Amino acid sequence: MSLPERVRVVEVGPRDGLQNEKQPISLQAKLELVNDLTETGLDYIEVGSFVSPKWVPQMAGSLDLFLKINKRAGITYSALTPNMKGFEAALEAGVKEIAVFAAASESFSQRNINCSIAESLKRFEPVMDAAKQHGMTVRGYVSCVLGCPYDGSISSQQVSYVARDLFEMGCREVSLGDTIGVGTPGPARTLIDTVSRDVPRQQLAVHFHDTYGQALANIYATLLEGISVIDSSVAGLGGCPYAAGASGNVATEDVLYMLNGLGIQTDVDLPRLIEAGQRICKVLGRENGSRVAKALC
Asked: Which of 11, 69, 249, 293 has minimal Cβ neighbours within 10 Å of its Cβ?
């Protein structure tokens, strides 16, 4: 299969990238990050998560954040909403697209959200119904698609079952996440080949963590399998608490550099994106996780 002519980049830095940071991050810093990203040409930004601050402290204030960002027409500002309480907050904030998540691993599901995969999917039914009633679209996530810290390897068929259920429930797109970053290109291609028998390739996305330095190679492999939606995080923000040494999400800057080199269109301004990453890294007092940003700054 040939490479796609265009790829849509889903920026997850403000949510997935910041949620595991241990130091408090001000609302103003989050606001500046989202507004900076808005100016880069990205058309999809995952802004926050409507979950209990008891479990994810960094996501406190997501309602205020959504109400204050400088929204621009043509950009989707999404939020994670795992239950009806979260959905109601998203509705109040004027969110147009929400996201739900499930795991491909039973052990991960139990340890992360204290229920089985089947139970987690059942919990989403009222959220999906409410979203439909209010004209909201829903994106689905599947975690641990290429490996689990508790169960080890995960079969592609198991991932396909979960992805199919999310798709049939009404998710317009399903993102396949290598949560602990153990995947390599061969299994990544096999995964897409298997899952695409149940969910059309044009409605699949990939979400790779770079724990073992394989994220870009895996993305390239899935591009060859017809995938044209890639999740990534500015400055490589994020980290996985379930894998020792995990370096978190693949950096959006590095993804863009590769896509530009392949002649694949994204409409994202790389220099502006680098500026956004440098600014939030300065706030966090941490080194930029993007190799491209380091090379060009």
From this structure: 69
